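fyi for ur records
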Amino acid sequence: MPSSGNLTPEPPLSRESPWLAPLAGYSDLSFRLLCRRWGCRAACTEMISAKGLFYSTANTMRLLQTCDRDLPLVVQLYGCDPEIMARAVSTLSSRGFEYFDLNCGCSVKKVVKTGAGAALLKDPGLLLRIVSAMADRAGPGRVGVKMRLGWSSEEHIYLNLAAPLAEAGAGWITLHPRTAVQQFTGKASWQALKNLKQVSPVPVVASGDLFTARDALDCVRQTGVDTVMFARGALMDPAIGMRYQNLLQGRNDLPRDQEFILSLCMEAIETYRRHASSRAVLKLRTLLPRMIRGLPGAKDLRKRIILCREWAELEKVMTSARENLERE
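which gave:
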């Protein structure tokens, strides 16, 4: 749990401070620590059910696992009942968590059919009541909202929500500039981000299609948003936060060669081994292939990675890859 006592650092909302998104299936403690090590200044937990929190399931407790190096941390919650959402914030606050985010962007069927996630965009009044209830329990500036443009192209409501969200107590707004119906198809609208930034009383965080550090820099410069949130870009390159910071400040980029990427893979294995259970090997079997994509021999290395079932096997495969590189 987060340390008690003095307040933890507030979520940074400046261009120099990129965020890590609440990636379902990936944004656990290990991955957050890896990305923080390489430039991400704030991170979100995976999306957590407010109702599920009261059952204290093993999976929910795993999603909330954290440590002092994992700060500032934002707990992302989903649900559609203002009272339950408020209770969830109170419960988590009593455990030391201080910052929260309401998911209004997930369009997965099992989430929206409950009225949560992006379904809240169909009922702005309910959305605002939830934000108000959460902010009342968390305190000023400690609740954010992650949303989309609207449910469909005929229902863009993001601009109309900016001022009411701020009035309800939202401290920042993260916008994935697609509709819920689009999911991840089409192209994220940077013009929408610019439009929101021009009318929003609170800081705006950009999300969506930020696959590289250059994408993020271009987005910030073209839209004027306060900062960026990396999602799929971080899965492909956990060092994307530092690459973005270097680019923003005119410093030399990190290496992009095989040696650097394989070393980053080894660091990922060590981080997961230290902070996660042996089951994390299965997660690394999906993460590491993303990280090595495009490297010479990546196809063969991927085949060997996905056959691994133990830490020792995974380390042997990656060590062998590094040794082969040194002999070339």
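The longest helix spans residues 258-275. thats all i got for now
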